[in-house]
């Protein structure tokens, strides 16, 4: 490839959703679990209620200042802890990264018995963490 083609491809890639974003989050914004605490013992199905303070919830694709939408990380390390570059890209969508792009603030999970970790991460309109990430602590729950 010529340098011009490479430069053009790089410029186009930066404009695509999912690449590093600069969406600000207000100082002190936080997400948290309303009804679950670290170490809680629960039965399946598990209802998880998402809390958010200092920001508002808006569906994915909605460009509105100081808003985002929830993502629930299940049974994975803290977001960005294994790979800090993970914070620069869109949050993946798979069994361990559940998107709530419709602006939902709760869900019900069918989890097998055993220990499970949960973390909430707020994403911007493009499913990318904010410039200052808004994420809960990772909690562990035990499903009986």
3D architecture notes:
This protein is mainly β and 144 residues long. The chain has one domain (3-143): Immunoglobulin-like (Sandwich), CATH 2.60.40.10. It contains one helix and nine strands, in the order H-E-E-E-E-E-E-E-E-E. Strands 2, 4, 5, 6, 8 and 9 form a six-stranded mixed beta sheet that branches. A three-stranded antiparallel beta sheet has the order 1-3-7, with no helix packed on it. Residues 1-20 form the signal peptide. Keywords: Signal. It comes from Jannaschia pohangensis. Residues 48-144 form the DUF4399 domain. It holds the Pfam family DUF4399.
Number of discrete helical segments: 1
Distance between the termini: 57 Å
Q: What's the quaternary structure here?
A: single chain
Q: What's the total number of strands?
A: 9
Q: What composes the largest sheet?
A: 6 strands, mixed
CATH superfamily membership: Immunoglobulins
Shape descriptor reads globular
CATH architecture: Sandwich
Pfam family, one: DUF4399
Keywords: Signal
Protein name: DUF4399 domain-containing protein
